[in-house]
Amino acid sequence: MTGLPPLPAREGLGEGMVAALAGMPDPAGAEFTTRFEHDLASTFSSREAVAVSSGTTALHAALSAIGIGPGDEVLVPALTVVMTAAPVVLLGATPVFVDSDPGTLDLDYADAAAKVTARTKAIVPVHLWGRMGDPAKLRAFAAAQGLTIIEDAAQAAGSSRADVTAGTVGAAGCFSLKDGKILWSGEGGFILTDDSQLAAHARAFRSHWLQPPPGSRPQERIALNGRLAEPLAALAQANLRRFPALLEYRCAQTAHLSRALEGTRGITPLQPATDEKWNCYAPLLHIGLPHPRAFAEHLAQQGVPNSTGSFTLVPCDTRPMFTSPDRAPCRGAAQILDRTLALVLTERDTVAVLDRYAAVITWEAAAWCT
Questions:
Q1: C-alpha–C-alpha distance, residues 183 and 255, integer Å
Q2: Nearest 10 degrees: CA dihedral of 286, 288, 290, 291?
Q3: Cystine design at 309: which of 27, 146, 297, 356 (Cβ 3.0–4.6 Å)?
């Protein structure tokens, strides 16, 4: 295939938003959110779906629902963004950063096991760039250590491994609907879970505990405003109907770029595992050139957006609020980020845009000698 499949039409995306706006102001309105949650649960074969205001809020609510609080520790990959660790801190707990295996991008389970203490209560695997680790290995590790799994699947809608869908490995899966995600609504997020009590807690948590779960009273605890606005819920539901086509389009974009970059000096596509159905969130390329991070930064300056060059993605354990002189850095995570070119795509990127990216990468790689 030399081109891309037809992009699903955007006409009609605003119809639901207009209908939602027509019913405003309605402070208690949740008609479109409820519909969206129903469709999410059906699409992802989950018993419950809870729509919230962001992927960060999804993690915050899910971690609260499993009882994470002051004095607890939560294992978090260093191979992630600050938004994964922030909810842990906001709940009064401590994120403990775990390294990753450069060969697989999966967690380094030996490092994780060495960092478990009596205070460790949960593990938050992160499916960065839509890539999933081995779900059987994750479940076995969590069971052996007595940990609850809360997935950060913000970028992984549509991914699966060994027939296990991203967001269904553990107690809850947390997703983002930020624009740029394959399934998007501008801002927003959602939780998938088969645990009705966890879902009830999350719904109360997102709305100041005004509708408490069974056994609780209204506003008997502090929560937050993490609701998904009704117009955004309507937009998200419309995009959910387009999701299979959007997913196909992103995978075709990634395949097109990989073909266009064949033979490029020092650039090799990273392949998913044989049992992995990857959503192709970001085309991933190994940089085998001198000073690879500097090369990614240079590409960003030349108009090729990528995770490390455009967004200065570094291991989370090296961020100023998390650094500690008595803790060794997660070198595997640093190696992955330094040597991986993760291109940033959107559904607006046509063949012409992709070919321009490929041409720039090929030209700059050939000339790179820094």
A1: 19
A2: 10
A3: 297
Q: What does the alpha-carbon distance between residue 370 and residue 368 come to, in Å, rounded to a whole number?
A: 6
**Fold matches, 13-239 and 243-367:** no
Domain residue ranges in the chain = 13-239, 243-367
Can you spell out the DSSP letters for 124-149? --B-GGG----HHHHHHHHHHHT-EE
Structure tokens given for 67:
């009882």
Tell me the Cα Rg of the chain. Answer: 21
Does the pTM of the predicted model rise above 0.90? yes
d(CA 124, CA 174): 10
Q: What is the rounded end-to-end Cα distance, in angstroms, of the chain? A: 36
One-letter amino acid of 190: F
* C-alpha span between 262 and 289 (Å, rounded): 15
Whether 73 and 96 have beta carbons less than 8 Å apart is answered as yes
What residues does 341 pair with on adjacent strands?
A: 285
Report the amino acid identity of residue 315: P
> Is the bond preceding residue 25 a cis peptide, omega within 30 degrees?
yes
Buried/exposed code over 186-196 (b: 16+ C-beta within 10 A; e: otherwise): ebbbbbbbebe
- Ranges assigned E (strand) in the chain: 48-52, 73-77, 94-98, 120-123, 148-152, 160-161, 164-165, 172-176, 189-193, 267-269, 276-277, 284-287, 340-342
Choose, from 115, 121, 178, 181, the residue flagged as catalytic. 181
Class of CATH domain 243-367: alpha beta
Axis-axis angle for helices 82-90, 55-65 (nearest 10):
40
Tokens of 233: 């819920």
Known catalytic residue at 181:
yes
Reported as a single tens digit per residue, the pLDDT across 131-160 is: 999 999 999 999 999 999 999 999 999 999
**Average pLDDT score over the chain:** 96
Q: What is the DSSP letter of 316?
A: G
Name the fold adopted by 13-239: Aspartate Aminotransferase; domain 2 (3.40.640)
Residue 283: φ, ψ to 5°: -55, 130
Chain segment 23-37, per-residue pLDDT in tens:
888 777 799 999 999
Tokens describing residue 55:
């992927």
* Residue 241 CB partners (closer than 8 Å, separation 6+): none
